[in-house]
Amino acid sequence: MKHPDDSNNDKDLFARLEADLAADFGGDVVDLDKARTARTASADADTDRPDSADAASAGSHPDRSADLGPDASDDAKPVLADSPAVSGPGYLDRIKGSKRIPVVPVWLTSRAEFTDASKWIGGHIWHTVWFHAFRSPLYVGKFALRTPAGFARTVARVLRWSIDAEGEPLRQAEARRENSELYLKLSRQRDRRVRLRVALTLISGLGSLGVALYLAFGASPLTQFLAAMLAVGTFGYLGAPADAPISSRAVVKTEVQKLTSDMVVKAMASIGIGQIANAVAKGQEGIKFVAPITREGPGWRADIDLPLGVTVADVADRRARLASALRRPLGCVWPDPDPNEHEGRLVLWVGDRDLSKTGAVKWGLANAKRHDIFARIPFGIDPRGRAQYVPLIQHNVLIGSLPGQGKTSSIRVLACGAAMDPTVEMWLHENKGTGDLDALECISHRFVSGIDDESVKYAADSLKLLRVEVMRRAAAIKALPRDLCPDKRITRQIADKKSLKLRPLLAIFDECQNLFAHPEYGKQAGEDAEFIIKLGRALGVILVLATQRPDKESLPTGISGNVSIRFCLKVAGQVENDMILGTSAYKNGVRATQFRPEIDAGNGYLAGATALPVVVRTAYLDDPATDAIAQRALALRKAEGTLSGHALGEDAERAAGPSYDLLADIAAVVPTTEERVWNERIAARLAELRPEVYAGWKGETVTSAIKPYGIRTRDIAGTTDDGTRTTRRGITRADLTTAITERDGKKGAA
Ligand SMILES: Nc1ncnc2c1ncn2[C@@H]1O[C@H](COP(=O)(O)OP(=O)(O)OP(=O)(O)O)[C@@H](O)[C@H]1O
């Protein structure tokens, strides 16, 4: 049966077909009337068939049109995808989706890689020269000791040559064979040679003796010295035993075998993936190399298509077996996904050296005089030795791992990077109590180190203050003229205007599990942190959180779900992995569980800073290095007059927060007689009271600002300025009074 709308659908369909046919046949004119007649006839005929209705509707449904072949006008049945009539994406679509290989090799275009390689070569040459120069007295001694032997060998060789000793075995052989003719020929040749050679030897011997006597008794001391050196050098060299060269090796090269496709196929077949093993057993390859194995950085790169149904995660799961099969240390073997391709595309990178054996990575800013936080902070290197960076502006960072795997070290790197920009306000909280960030206390606006309740409360208070600060900034940014702040976010230009008080603010909470899991302050701290993470990014407030217990209690999901940059060092399992790196990270093969305890301290997956999650070995700053950087940062801040708060020894509570008391200000604008008041009215009155602080506040701003103090916002009936009765969000004066009393009581108790 035909649907009433079918006539319209038919028109659409024919319009589409008209376009398709025109495209397919180079714009040849088709008689549409004939086509319509044909289709009507066929549709009528189809009514007898049980599936005709479905077929017709499929043909008329706009979404199905893609399944129709060019001749679908005759019969609107779905066409199978493998029908020759369905050709798939056209040439243009395919080349649009293809990846272009860079014309100039990456190492030539990457200044960093080129500089790095040049540094290595320069360092290698310098080391070799210095190594041998240092040992030169030893080499002279060895030469001198070997000189007599060298002299004796030389004399023996000359004597053997002059008596034609090398022809003796041949003459003997001919004598034994009694070949007298040839023997006589050889003997005559020997006599001629010996006569000439003995004469030459005598002449040159006498000459040499004369030269030696002259050098010994007639030459200047310099000539004697040079001649002696030449003689010692030559005879010492000739006197060296074959197995004991004069010099030792300045560098021991780690010869690593070239990675061949054969090795990769064999290795992949032995890691317990059935499809590959079976294919290889049948003499096939099992995997497909989509590009030749190439040298990339200090290692080899193989781009591989895994068998159907096998994912990169399956290989990542078996990384240790793969390393064993390739006969390489675990830290050399890195199976990674290629997110620009399908789930079965594996990028296998096999390094020449184990990442954990790289030693302490030197920090890119170790000798810098200053840094701009709007540029990325050097963070470490990837297994291929390329520098990796973390952008802080517009971001928040979450770091997690088991204890002792390098969280604090990575935090130090970020803190020091930010410290090198004197405009950054540093709020540092280290709730482990080991003083890992103490070196930076001298430049901090707020600072705490401790695991006791008071220290945790200090950190919780910081989050409360930050929440208010975020709201202040939001209003301040909103009020800025559009030409100064077109994107409604902080820029270098805005941050540099001291009067705006919008400089970048870095707040670090190390061991934040002790804060978020705290029975008294944890819940509110979690809510505040979530609020800051969601809103603070564009406003120059950067939150960096590190935890050794990534679970729901210690790390609210609102936080883990909203951070933009994640760094995960060794963790125990999938749950912790995904808490830090984001949902499905483990499933996608991004697994920080693969790192080894202690050995891989400092190695982790960095996600969000680059298009793909990447393994990074962080730079390492020990205490003296951190101290030196902190002192440089202090000098910069002193010079620019940007030290504030704790660093100036100001009262922490006052220094930390805004210089106004929000609750007192609300109490001032809401008279005691006014039992209920709308938040929008409070906002307007606050703006009048202190325009420099509250300008731009709205009812919602007030709602968020009072929430940390436990004041409930409720629906309140009232009358608008134009006399209309309505209900809006507001508070009661009683709630305000209670909040003030509670707060002041706590302050008194402390
Ligand atoms: N990037 C690195 N390079 C080399 N070694 C490192 C690196 N990072 C950490 N380590 C080593 O790991 C040790 C522990 O590091 P760190 O104190 O940062 O770990 P943590 O995860 O903060 O520990 P905890 O959870 O106990 O606070 C360091 O003392 C150092 O020896």
TrEMBL record:
The chain crosses the membrane at residues 194-216. It holds the Pfam family FtsK_SpoIIIE. Gene3D superfamilies: P-loop containing nucleotide triphosphate hydrolases. Keywords: ATP-binding, Membrane, Nucleotide-binding, Transmembrane, Transmembrane helix. It comes from the Bacteria. Coiled coil: none annotated. The keyword Membrane applies. ATP binds at residues 401-408. GO terms for molecular function: ATP binding; DNA binding. Residues 37-84 are annotated as: Disordered. InterPro entries: FtsK/SpoIIIE/SftA, FtsK_dom, P-loop_NTPase. Residues 376-578 form the FtsK domain. This is FtsK domain-containing protein. It comes from Actinacidiphila bryophytorum.
